[in-house]
Amino acid sequence: MSGVRPRFTAAAGLALAIVAMGSLVLFLGGNGRAAVTHTCSATDRQFMTVAQLNMAALGSLSEDYLHGDAKPADVIGQTQMAVTGLANTNPSDPSLSKTRAIMRAMFVEYGRAIRADAKHHNPGKYIYRAYGLANFAHDVLSDARPGLAKRGCDVGPLL
Question: What is the number of other CB atoms lying within 10 angstroms of the CB of residue 147?
Answer without folding.
Answer: 17
